[in-house]
Specification:
Order of helices and strands: HEHEHEHHHEHEEHEHEHHEHEEH
Number of strands: 11
Mean pLDDT: 94
Helix content: 40-55%
Largest sheet: 6 strands, mixed
Low-confidence stretches: none
Number of helices: 13
Structural class: alpha/beta
Distance between the termini: 26 Å
Radius of gyration: 21 Å
Shape: globular
Amino acid sequence: MSFIDVIKERAAKSKKTIVLPESMDARTYEAAAKVVKEGFADIIIVGSPEEVAKFGAGFDLTGVKVVDPATSDRTAAYIDKLVELRQKKGMTPEAAKELLLKDYLYYGVMMVKMGDADGMVSGACHSTADTLRPCLQILKTKPGTKLVSAFFLMVVPDCEYGANGTFVFADSGLVQNPTSDELASIANSSAESFELLVGEEAKVALLSHSTKGSAKHADVTKVTDALALAKEQFPNLNVDGEFQLDAAIVPSVGASKAPGSPIAGKANVLVFPDLDAGNIGYKLTQRLAKAEAYGPVTQGIAKPVNDLSRGCSADDIVGVVAITSVQCQAQD
């Protein structure tokens, strides 16, 4: 079985309800139809009858629940709750109603907040900022987590490195230029995500253009400081650095450049020093190694909400729905 097939099988054991708010995109309907047919999650699409008729034409939506904010009997409760949550920011009933009827991402997040859905997947036709803004305003961060970050779960074919070619690349989608403290937080969250989704022990490498002091630069110091903070704050975290990429994943190079390291040559969670490196790294791996790239998957939000690349396919959405479902199971 492929990695994502295993995730779907796990999701099917305790089906969760995932809301897809992008009813203005045909990929949403194609993905919803596939998920329901495969039977590993229940799907809610937020949209008007007109949008469903226009963009969902030709797809078998049997078993897919469609909720129209303009007519749903839950909308009034969502308005009241949104006012309660945001009244200190000036939210009024009139503004809340306008926002929820106009912006389906906010409506979807309110469904998750109020327990009418377990998680949400969005981003096929919205930016990451648009997807995460309502999450941070309404759901907030997960207790005990300092930072919301994002990773890609990479599955590289015919690869002897990582966990049989499976890696977490972080942060590859959200935090632009993390501080040392933020890198430490990303490392810990990414290890937890890896172990949840892959089921193996996380081995975390903090990446750099330097390995164990081979270069001197403020960018290297940021990573070495992150390592010290990670070990202090998360004493059970299996982490080391700073490593160049080859020293992190190739056993012979790791043994040569970082002898005695428990991580060198064995890493399966790669923490990049900034978003430029993480984003470029995952796209290079996806395109040149023909890797499957699932994400950006968010971590650190109080309830599972995941972003999509705007270039995603319907099958990509299906995969992220499966991953989101497994994250929801972990909250039970």
